[in-house]
Amino acid sequence: MPAAPSLQISLCSAESRDYLVEAGTLVLLIEGSVELTDSPQWIADHYVALKRSLQPETPFRIEVGGWIRLDARGPSEIVLIAPHSLALWARAGECLRRWLGASRALGGPIG
Predict the structure, then answer these.
(1) Disulfide engineering: 81 pairs with which of 13, 26, 52, 102, CB 3.0-4.6 Å?
(2) Could you tell me which residues come within 8 angstroms of residue 67 by beta carbon, excluding any fewer than 6 positions away?
(3) Better-scored residue on pLDDT, 18 or 40
């Protein structure tokens, strides 16, 4: 995955793409139907790549970095969020909460 904090992906029905991701990357299905194949790993004496169906608007965290595959079952929108950008979004959310709280405390309009 590029060094950008997030990557938005549009897939057509039956389209597959491979991405190199870091451990901790979040995969978020915005809409559609997608099957994610994890980076292959050794489990006991077997080399296994686990597959899972992603649920819309439910983030999935990649535990082990490597190549993943996204297989669209229909037109789909996905976002990959790099782990280093998560702290940035958390700080931005906290700033917004403080700003909204200060605005409400002053009785002023928000905006």
Answers:
(1) 26
(2) 18, 19, 20, 21, 39
(3) 18
